């Protein structure tokens, strides 16, 4: 399965010369700088994780049990978002729901298979390992 995030859509539309406003994805309300720290991102967010999760659950609109496996405030594609990975009872894989951290608008929802989810987890582990760098004894 090919996974497109808001960042991929932004890069693709820029590369082929389409104005981003012409895309059907909603525009976000907060545009953090790339250098913003986690603390700064949390200060910029206008809605809490709990409120954003409520919007994400409502968007899935199912009567089945929903379990949130991760919630993260992040800058993605120039937007400040709350990103949720949610499992819906009786369905395989995860639903990734991205919520605007400024106004609660749903920016994207897409299904990730178990294989895609495992691959992303491995990529994230590699990033964390490489970003910490080698440890040198003092």
Written account of the structure:
This protein has 138 residues and is an alpha+beta fold. The chain has a single domain, classed as Nuclear Transport Factor 2, Chain: A. Helix content is 35%, strand content 25%. The protein has helices spanning 6-15, 38-44, 49-60, 114-132, and strands at residues 66-76, 79-88, 94-100, 106-112. The chain has a four-stranded antiparallel sheet. β2 (79-88) and β3 form a beta hairpin. It is globular, with a radius of gyration of 16 Å. The termini are far apart.
Looking at the structure, the CATH topology is: Nuclear Transport Factor 2, Chain: A
Q: What do the pLDDT scores average to? A: 82
Q: Note the main sheet.
A: 4 strands, antiparallel
Low-confidence stretches: 10-14, 18-23
How many beta strands in the DSSP annotation? 4
CATH class reads Alpha Beta
State the end-to-end CA separation: 46 Å
Q: Spell out the helices and strands N to C.
A: HHHEEEEH
User: What general outline do the C-alpha atoms trace?
Assistant: globular
Helix-strand category = alpha+beta
Query: Which second-level CATH architecture applies?
Result: Roll
- Order of strands across the biggest sheet? 1-2-3-4
Radius of gyration: 16 Å
Helix content: 25-40%
Count of spatially separate domains: 1
Beta-strand portion reads 25-35%
- Helical element count? 4
